[in-house]
Structure formats: structure tokens, C-alpha cells
Amino acid sequence: MKHAGPDTLRLLASLLNAVRTDTSLVERTPGSFYRKSKAYLHFHEDPAGIFADVKLDGMSFTRLRVSTATEQAQLLKLMAQACVK
Questions:
Q1: Distance CA 84, CA 26 (A)
Q2: Phi and psi torsions of 37, nearest 5°
Q3: Which of 5, 31, 63, 81 has CA atoms 20 to 30 A from the CA of 49?
Q4: Tell me, what's the pLDDT at 85?
Q5: What is the C-alpha to C-alpha distance for residues 78 and 71, in angstroms, rounded to an integer?
Q6: Are strands 62-65 and 49-54 parallel, antiparallel or unpaired?
């Protein structure tokens, strides 16, 4: 599964804009976010869809499908819940 390219990231524009509002994250390269010095969130493209790898527990990546608006909203919800813990 390859990292998301520019065309795929354009499809995720509204999701990326929502993620960018989290001031604890730094976007080092387009679509690749870090919390402090650790990778936190990035995206992949695959024939099966678009996926996010996110460290909800702060330790290991969890892969979530984010091809639809509903899936993207779920990612944002899980990220918000993870920040509260």
C-alpha cells in the first residue's frame, strides 16, 4: 500500500483542513502529521480505498479506512477521544 499522492490528498481536503485545526499536530509534509517528534497520522491509497494510519494510543499505528465522509468523521471522532484520554 503506497502513501497517498497529491491527487488523493486533494480528495481529502476537508478532512485535512479539520486535522490542521489540532494545534498539537505539525504537518511536516502534505498529509503527514506529527505530535511532538513522533509520527502520528498519515494516509495511504490502495485499490480498496483510502486509509489513515493513526496512533490513537500514542504507541502503534491503527489503520482506518477514510474513503467516505462517514469514515472521515469517524477518524476525527476517534482522534478527539484519544486526546481526552
A1: 19
A2: -105, 10
A3: 81
A4: 53
A5: 11
A6: antiparallel
Q: Looking at residues 20-38, what average pLDDT do you find?
A: 96
H helix and E strand count, the chain: 3, 6
Round to whole Å and give the CA distance between 3 and 49.
12
Which three cell numbers mark 8? 488523493
Q: What are phi and psi of 2, to 5 degrees?
A: -95, 155
| Per-residue pLDDT reduced to its tens digit, 30-72 | 999 999 999 999 999 999 999 999 999 999 999 999 999 999 9
For residue 31 the three cell numbers come to 498529509
Integer Rg of the chain from CA: 12
AA identity, residue 2 = K
* Residue owning grid cell 497520522: 41
